[in-house]
Amino acid sequence: RNLLDRDTFSKSDPICVLYTQAIGNKEWREFGRTEVIDNTLNPDFVRKFIMDYFFEERENLRFDFYDVDSKSPNLSKHDFLGQMFCTLGEIVGSQGSRLEKPIVGIPGKKCGTVIVTAEELGCCRDSVLMQFCANKLDKKDFFGKSDPFLVFHRSNEDGSFTICHKTEVVKNTLNPVWQAFKISVRALCNGDYDRTIKIEVYDWDRDGSHDFIGEFTTSYRELSRGQSQFNVYEVINPKKKGKKKKYVNSGTVTLLSFLIETEVSFLDYIKGGTQINFTVAIDFTASNGNPSQPTSLHYMNPYQLNAYGMALRAVGEIIQDYDSDKMFPALGFGARLPPDGRVSHEFALNGNPQNPYCHGIDGVMEAYYRSLKSVQLYGPTNFAPVINHVARYAASVKDGSQYFVLLIITDGVISDMAQTKESIVNASKLPMSIIIVGVGPAEFDAMEELDGDVVRISSRGRFAERDIVQFVPFRDYIDRSGNHVLSMARLAKDVLAEIPEQFLSYMRVRGIKPSPAPPPYTPPIHVLQTQI
């Protein structure tokens, strides 16, 4: 909207060029170009860019605008109209996945604004729940009736078939009713509604030499008509058909029900307005070492971030795109506080217990450095208070409009294991996830136990409802070459990768559906003024 006008006799002819940035060397690479729209300062570009989206990765984008003056593909031959920088997460995390930002890059000029919208490609996230029965199947067993089961195959581009589902065996009947089963539309027909689906009927034998009863073909489109005369299929055995003149069929298979379920994704909730609230908790126990010494994990090196700062930035910079107000509560634990030296296991890093919020990741970093100067590192290492702190907030909004992520950065050995387990088991019923980053050389066995990937965490005989803890040791990510950018991107990727699934598991268990996204933006209709 309102692009600069660079043409003397007519309006600009704009094009938009999208660049993505490599994580390591920060090099911008051209990703694609829109079409050129002639003679307008308010273009609505049609060409879309299709990109891979990962919640756990930061994808920097740059949109450059040019006024195209000739047929040359070389951009330096055209007039630059400005640019806009953002991340893919910023677009996706905006209300309705619609981001509006000013175009910058030409000093002293207003370059207009750009509106970017994102939508997830619904490459068939549907699943189908269907049920079949059969009648008068051929008898294959000498002593009893048949033990029938069905095998489903989808056809491939080259005409071959791939097995995609087997039903259970129903024993000793020629009129079986199989249990309903759920399969993704992708697996069933690769999302192509007219592709052939081949279904074979077998008689189960204990030795694995199942007898072929017959087969039939259908398609997703036919099946989707549901229970009707169209979905009664004759089971044909081609060998028998070839030999016997009077052969009619080897029985029939009938579709009893067909229900389409659309799987909702993490982005459906984000688009519907669910906010992710990010809270940081930092370990201020004495085992970290004196912050004024270079050996300390809290050492305030004027030239580079310490491990706490690096972990905080790596995770925070990605999550902040999904939090509209960018205000993050930042807590500390295990320190003695001024003026009286009382030990606290949940103090506000900004010194304001009534309002522990810091503005953006930079605000959190600033409060962290300020705290290091004013508090005395002490102990013990108690996690339960900060977990309960976030859980109190999470317990007050269980309607799916908010989800809480707590990042705990610690040097390790935990003192209140029993209380922490109890807190995590309680929190597993709430809309929250916990990320623990272990810094320093300690043994982190206790953390692995909290992670619950191997054995689900329990407390006093109660097991956690969902796995909500993700632990990683910081030392696994330290790059020997000193290139922290890549290693921190890997750290963020590993700790954040489980969040969308943990988020969805909460919503599923609670039966919470995403809110509808706000209506898409429609450009105002320009009224043509006629001169009289």
TrEMBL record:
Stretches assigned to the C2 domain: 1-101, 110-233
Keyword Transcription annotated: no
Pfam families referenced in this protein's UniProt entry, alphabetically: C2, Copine
Keywords: Calcium, Metal-binding, Repeat
One cellular component term from this protein's GO annotations in UniProt: plasma membrane
Organism superkingdom: Eukaryota
Cited PROSITE patterns: C2, VWFA
One Gene Ontology biological process: cellular response to calcium ion
GO molecular function terms attached to this record: calcium-dependent phospholipid binding; metal ion binding
CDD domains (alphabetical): C2A_Copine (cd04048), C2B_Copine (cd04047), vWA_copine_like (cd01459)
VWFA domain mapped to chain residues: 277-478
Similarity annotation: Belongs to the copine family.
Name of the protein this chain belongs to: CPNE8 protein
Annotated organism of origin: Myiagra hebetior
Lineage: Eukaryota, Metazoa, Chordata, Craniata, Vertebrata
Gene: Cpne8
